Amino acid sequence: MKAGYFLSAASLSALLVTAVAPASADDKLEQLKEQGFARIAIANEPPFTAVGADGKVSGAAPDVARAIFEKLGVKEVVASISEYGAMIPGLQAGRHDAITAGLFMKPERCNAVAYSEPILCDAEAFALKKGNPLKLTSYKDIADNPDAKIGAPGGGTEEKLALEAGVPRDRVIVVPDGQSGIKMLQDGRIDVYSLPVLSIHDLMAKAKDPNLETVAPVVNAPVYCDGAAFRKQDVALRDAFDVELKKLKESGEFAKIIEPYGFSAKAAMSTSREKLCAPAK
Ligand code: 6CS
What residue stretch is flagged as signal peptide (predicted)? Predict the structure, then answer.
């Protein structure tokens, strides 16, 4: 699988100048084919997305996107790292052609972008001190303990789940990346760090810290699925992406790409954008 490349902000801004807006929505794919690459937003949160020391982009979401864009005649993907909360504004401002980052489908996001059908599904997890001294197994447990501080990505699902469970804003600490989250936990600046299960497992495997442990899944937290996200006006590109995604799922290639990262093809194929974007009952 060809690797895509990570772009610094400076070189990305230079690309912005060249990425001319298409005449019409249907020309977006033609524009990308001529451009030779699709600019994707990622978070660098393995195994969803990752940027190697050599700048090569991997992770389940970019690998699926690269495979599909190749079939659509777009040779490369070029990634830029973004905080989850900045991905949709960046897409809408034309800084990205798609978000392929594990950005979970939720009604409020479905109102803002055109999601593909589901790609990567995962439950939520906590990384915390060995022995779970504060007995935290749900976001409500954190809310109910006035001393408990949670770290979560800015604009991310775990931040929102904590706030919705009643954790006051001053006890929800925005964490820029996985390594920082583990360090903050080790330094006692937070009592729990929350990300999806596979992301926490990846970080814990790398941290190899016997003083930390994982709670997974978080009690009463939903299983989420992402999709590739496109601008609302690029729904023709989204539909073309979905045609190839469906073929990838049916051929077995989809499972071959995502399951080595720990994701379940069956989980993504057993749900739909319609179900995941439906307003909560
Ligand atoms: O979609 C989100 O907001 C979440 N998705 C991932 C893959 N990691 C954390 C983030 O909060």
Answer: 1-25
